[in-house]
Amino acid sequence: xxxxxxxxxxxxxxxxxxVWLIEIRAGVYVGDLSIKVRDMIWSQIEExxxxxxxxxxxxxxxxxxxxxxxxxxxxxxxxxxxxxxxxSFYPPADEEKDVL
Length: 100
Hints:
Blueprint: E1 2-7, H1 11-20, E2 22-25, E3 28-31, H2 35-48, E4 53-59, E5 66-72, E6 76-81, E7 84-89, H3 93-99
Antiparallel strand pairs: 1-3, 1-4, 2-3, 4-5, 6-7
Helix pairs in contact: 1-2
């Protein structure tokens, strides 16, 4: 199983994703593809993302049962801890100004 979520990406990238995956909701694509096709799709996202952001998650043989990658500006930061991939959050922009 493969899931891709995109935000604020150009319509042409959304159209490219719809060629390989089913868009079950605005910006949410799912499918069941090979590793080779998954990597090719991710390279298409890297080339066409512009100012948007994306996350791709897929089933794999790990402790958590899945893995994921992210791209673009987002408050969430993937962090690996003892072999598990978790998500950390950057502070909101207005809190950063208060700290400085």
